[in-house]
Amino acid sequence: MQTKEFKAESKRLLDMMINSIYTHKEIFLRELISNASDAIDKLYFKSLTDTSVGMSKGDFAIDLKLDKENRTITISDNGIGMNEQELEDNLGTIANSGSLAFKKDNDLGEDVDIIGQFGVGFYSAFMVAKLVTVRTKAYGSDKAFKWESEGVDGYTIEECEKDGCGTEIVITLKDDTEDENYSRYLEQWEIQSLVKKYSDYIRFPIRMDVEHTHYHDADDPEVHVENEVLNSMVPIWKKNKNELTEEDYNNFYIEKFNDYEAPLAYIHSKNEGVATYDSLLYIPARTPFDYYSKDYEKGLQLYSSGVLIMEKCADLLPDHFSFVKGLVDSEDLSLNISREMLQHDRQLKIIAKNLEKSIKNELLKMLKNNREKYEKFFSAFGLQLKFGIYQSYGAAKDTLEDLLMFTSSFEGKKVTLEEYISRMKDDQKYIYYACGPSVAKIEQLPQTELVRDKGYEILYCTDDVDEFVLKVMINYKEKQFKSVSDKDLELETDEEKAELTKQAEDSKEMLEFICSALDGKVKEVRLSKRLKTHPVCLSSDGQVSIEMEKVLNSMPQNAENHVNAEKALEINASHPVFETLKKLYVSDKDKLKKYSGLLYSQALLIEGLSIDDPAGFSDMICELMAEIG
Ligand code: ADP
Questions:
Q1: pLDDT in tens, 273-328
Q2: Which of 96, 151, 259, 434 lies deepest, with the highest CB count within 10 Å?
Q3: 3-state SS assignment for residue 193
Q4: What's the CA-to-centroid distance between 241 and ligand 1, angstroms?
Q5: Statement to judge: residues 474 and 501 lie in one domain
Q6: Residues 6 or more apart from 455 whose CB is under 8 A from it?
Q7: From ligand 1's centre to the CA of 91, what distance in Å?
Q8: Domain finish residue from 420, 453, 483
Q9: Are 101 and 208 part of one and the same domain?
Q10: Does any ligand 1 atom lie closer than 6 A to the CB of residue 82?
């Protein structure tokens, strides 16, 4: 008997398999089981149209056998089988070289990924086997053939004996090494759990002899063997919604996605049309511990006709909904599709678009019908929605704006933007917001005084990203956002405006003096339109607000390059201190200079910023106290 060489491409793939350092070698079982299932599918299909086959659905099965002594795993099916030529063509060459084409464009590091993510069919057996023996008999043929290979050196084919049509694959496991324990594949529990994990939803029974030990008598346990079906065969997402209870959905979620808390919502849908697929999505109730870290991987499980082909298909979820867990099962996708092909797959894009829409609708429904639940959702994942708007430079605004929530001055509750504008006063032009590290701190900000006095609601931006989000959004339903620290709040009446302009005119020189005394720390010193009881505050003129300056400067990448907001010092002309300043401008400019510094430091402190010279500041206050005392 002559040993035949593998075709060049197969040889390369085989080489990759044998030398794979990939830790998920276990997927070999999934690959062989799905091949067996495909082969059964073919004969089953034939049996539906050709009565001479004489088999019905219940006759088909995949059988697994473990033999510890000989270190073999046998996977047999009673499917369509292969004749000599097919055996030669199918196992001597790679049927689908898509994944290999993908591999060519990538360095070796990527090997790891293709094997794990997509599998590479039959050859994956060589990740765990030192010898693979295939016995097969094609349907309708009376001859059976044996194919055998130890790997790259080639393979042999010879005639053999075999009952009935179908294929039997015997894998002789490699010897255990320090890094890899191949013997584990000989343990029944390991095989049971691999079938559950990867092949639970194969539509034909996967059977195996399972040993059960009974300890009626502790010294003499009774072992009996039962042939059991390891897979459940009907995936929950293939069932009708009315057959399932909320508990069914929740149990499936907890088991499948390793959560201990039931999800807030599930979305089960069946779709036919441009894309045919079933999907089952979940909105978790709590933030995974690594969610806001770079270790978190988004994605949905992707099945092709009930066979898991990808554990985390990232392309199915936009970043802003990365918290969603679930799966998609489509018959439009081939089992051995590579990641690169997936990225360009039109079907997948259509599915992803539909999923995004239904997630959004589900969340809106929750917001409308179950406020408490929605607020729980928002405290777990609201930040991600905000990042979504910011990181997309506003592209995701339309999708996400109605889902946002902010704490507001209105009863201190969380509100949506929709609710805010529904309460806006007739004369109110803007959506006002104020930023700070906490609600309590924001409420103390002098800048909020006037807006609040007007009876206008204020959104409290306590997350670092909040103001960036509002800047990117610009407006909501044509109402612009405005910071309470903005230079011009446009709140004063015409008379107030005229009065202020006059006062500013009168004290112009003094304000300029204070500004130059502050030596470039502020761009302008002006009379405040917003202060009512407090003496001073800071406001910002440019695109970068004081709050944004704080956030940006706390990021490590800005450690060297400090970002500076263009600040203005605002003075309250109706505060008694203003009279003192005016007097000093005439009588004691040195003192006015000192006071300028004091006022500025106070404004910084109110804003939650640090002052350059705290000791000097304190000395000056004490000096003043001593003078007065
Ligand atoms: P793929 O399954 O993607 O086509 P594989 O390398 O897994 O690639 O298998 C190559 C071919 O070998 C299959 O397309 C099928 O024709 C044949 N084959 C593999 N396993 C079996 C089996 N158990 N029964 C019949 N044919 C099989």
A1: 888 999 999 999 999 888 988 889 999 999 887 767 788 999 999 999 999 999 99
A2: 434
A3: helix
A4: 35
A5: no
A6: 425
A7: 7
A8: 483
A9: yes
A10: yes
